[in-house]
Amino acid sequence: MSGLVGRNLLAGPEPHVAEDAGYADAPPRMGFFTDTSVCIGCKACEVACKEWNAVPEDGLEFTGMSYDNTQGLGADTWRHVAFIEQDKPVGNADSGVRWLMASDVCKHCTHAACLDVCPTGSLFRTEFGTVVVQEDICNGCGYCVPACPYGVIDQRKEDGRVWKCTLCYDRIGDGLEPACAKACPTDSIQFGPLDELRERAAVRVDQLHEMGVEDARLYGHDPEDGVGGDGAFFLLLDEPEVYGLPPDPVVTTRDLPAMWKHAGVAAAALAGGIAALFTVHGRLGGRR
Amino acid sequence: MSTSDVTKDGIEGKRPGRDALIGQGTGKGERRRRRGERAMVPKAEFTSYYGKPVLNPPVWQAADIAGYFFLGGLAGAGSVLAAGADLTGRRKAARALKVSSLVAIAGSAAALIHDLGRPARFYNMMRVMKPTSPMSMGSWLLAAYGPAAGAAAVLDVTGLFKPLGRAATLGAAALGPAVASYTAVLASDTAVPAWHDGYRELPLVFVGSAAAAASGMALLAAPVRETAPMRSAAVFGAGLELAAAKLMERRLGMVAEPYREGTGGRLIRVAEVLSVAGAAGGALLGGRSRIAAALSGAALLAGSACTRFGVFHAGMQSAKDPKYTVVPQRERADARDTAKTGNG
Ligand code: SF4
Ligand code: SF4
Question: To test the ligand 1 pocket, which listed residue (A134, A145, A150) has its Cβ within 8 A of the most ligand atoms?
Fold first, then answer.
C-alpha cells in the first residue's frame, strides 16, 4: 500500500482526483470558496440547503452562547454559520469589536478519510471530484464519522445512515450552482472550478492584506496540506480553531500502511510468543 | 427619470458583494502593524469554538464496539492457544479454547451487526474489498476466520473428520493473530487523537490483552495439569499489554491524558490491577489449586475487558474535548511556520 502513497492516492497533492478514481473524461474539479470576510451571518445558505436537500430539522435549541443556535455540522446540518464576537477591530476599522461569521461545510477533501474507510463503498468520488454518500448502500457502520478530521459527517439517529453535504450533486450535474451558493446574498459562498477559485482567492487575500486586514488567510487551499487540499476552502480572519476548524488536519489513512505494519508485528509477536511458550513447555507428560 | 444612484445592478453599477472592502474603516489613524508581536507572546491557552468538539465523536456504543474488541481478541488468541494445546497433547484445554473462540467470535459478529445503523444491510460489508478500510478488511478476515474457528470447535466436540478438524484448528490459529490485532488498526484509522496517535503501540496492547484473556479462559475452563503453557502465556500477554501501554502513554504526551483520567483512565487502572493479579495468581498458584486457577482466569478475562473499554472511553474523551485535536495540531503548524520563516 505504500505504493499508493507514492502515487499520492493516500496523501499528498493529487491534481487529478476524478481521473484517479476511474473517470476517463472527467469535467474540471468543482468546489466552494467561502470568503468569510464578506459573510453577514444571514444563514440563507443553511436554509437553502435544508430546503433543496430536504434535510430534516436539527433541533430547535437556544444555545445562549451567540447568534449561532445551529452549533456545528452534522447529519442534519450541511451548512453551518459560525458566529464569533471578538474584542478587536477588523483591519483599520475604528471600532473595538468585530464579528466573525463563517459558513462551514464539508471540505470535499482531496484525500477524504470518510471515503477511504467506508467498508461498503457507499461513500464515493464523483466525476466532479466531490465526495458523496450513496444512501441506498450505507449500512450505518459509523466508521466515516470519527474518520473525518473536520467533524462533518454524522449519523442520523432515527434513520441509522450517515448524511452530509453532496455539493448539490443533483444540481451541479445539471449545470446549476449549489443551493447555498445560489442563495448567498454577498457571494461569500462562491462555486466554480477549483483552479479558478484558488486564483480568485489568492487575489482576494492580497487585496485584503493591502487594505490592512492582515489577519486574512486562506484555509484548505493548499494541495500540500495534510488532506491534499480541500475542494471547499475558506478565507478566514483568524486562526482556524477560532471557527471550530482543525488547525492542521491530516487524513488518517496517510498512516494506514504504517498501522498495518505495526499490527503485523504485533500479530507475529502473538503467534511467535505463544509458539515459543508451547515449545518450552513441551508435550503434556512427555519429553520435549 | 430616476436620480438615484441605486440601479438594477447595485449602487452606481457597482456590485460590492464579494469585493467588499471590509475593515477599511474611516482611514483615520493607520493602525500599527501587528506582525511579530504575535509570535513573541506564547499562547497560554488553546482556542476553540465555544468549547465545542472539532470532531464528531464516534457513534459506536461502548458495549458493542469495546465488547467486539474484547471478544475478537479472546477468540483470536484462543485459537492460537488451542492449536498449541492440540499439538502438545492438551486435549481438554484445546477443546475448551476452541469452543470459547467459536462463542466469542459469534458474539463479536453479533455485537458488530447490532451496532450498525442499518443491521439488515450487514451484507453490504461484503459488497467490496477495500484495503484502505480496516473495517472492510476485518469483515473479510472474519468471513474466513469464523468458519475455521467454527469447524475447529464443532469437529473437536463431535470427534468427526479428524484431519479436517486439525486443518481447521491450524487455519484458525493462522488467522487468529490477525483477528486479535486488526481491531487496533480499526480504532487507529480515525481522527480520534488518543486512538490515531497510538497506532504504533495499540496493536501490541491489543494482542497482549488478547493473550491474557484467552489464557484466562483456559485457566478457568481446563484442568490444572494442562494449563502450564497458558499460565506462562498469561504472564507474557499481561506483560506485553502493560509495557506497550506505558510506552504509548509516554510517547503521546498530552494526548495520553484520557488514558489516565475520567472513565477511560479509571478502567485502564482497574485493568492493570486485574491483569497483574491474574497473571501473578495464575503463575504462582494456578498450578496447584483449581480454585486459584479459576480466580486468576476470571481476573485475566475481566482485566482484558477493562483494557478494551478503557481504550474505547479514552478515545471518546479525546474526541469530545477540542483540546486534544487543537493543541497538537497548533503546535505542529506553528513549528512548521517557524521553520519556514527561519525562527521568525
Ligand atoms: S470534510 Fe470530512 S466528510 Fe467531507 S470529504 Fe473530508 S473527510 Fe469526508
Ligand atoms: S456509515 Fe455508511 S457511509 Fe459511513 S462508512 Fe459506514 S457504510 Fe460508509
Answer: A150
d(CA A274, CA B175): 14
d(CA B143, CA B127): 13
Class of domain B60-320: mainly alpha
Q: If 0-12 CB within 10 Å is exposed, 13-18 middle and 19+ buried, where does residue B159 land?
A: exposed
| pLDDT-flagged residues of chain B (< 70) | 1-16, 24-44, 342-344
The per-residue pLDDT for B20 is: 80
CATH architecture of A17-250: 2-Layer Sandwich (3.30)
As a whole number, mean pLDDT of residues A79-91 equals: 90
- Please report, for chain A, the start and end positions of each structural domain, with discontinuous segments joined by +: 17-250, 251-288
Instruction: State the best of A42, A204, A278 to mutate against chain B, taking most chain B CBs within 10 Å.
Output: A278
Cβ–Cβ < 8 Å for A201, B18: no
Q: CA B258 → CA B55, B57, B92, B181, B197, distances in Å?
A: 16, 14, 41, 22, 12
Distances (CA, A) of B163 to B78, B95, B147, B288: 20, 15, 16, 34
Question: Is it the case that residue A2 has pLDDT exceeding 50?
Answer: no
Using CA coordinates, name the residue in chain A closest to B38: A215
Spell out the residues 6+ positions from residue A121 whose beta carbon is closer than 8 angstroms to its own: A134, A137, B127, B128, B130
Instruction: Give the distance between the most distant pair of CA atoms in chain A.
Output: 91
Closest to A266 (Cβ–Cβ): which among B30, B181, B228? Answer: B181
pLDDT score of A96 more than 90:
no
At A119, the amino acid letter reads P
Residue A236: strand, helix, or coil: strand
> What ipTM was estimated for this complex?
0.94
How far does Cα B281 stand from its chain's mean position?
A: 28
Asked if A50 contacts A68 with a C-beta cutoff of 8 angstroms, the reply is no
For residue A208, the SS3 value is helix
Amino acid identity at B253: G
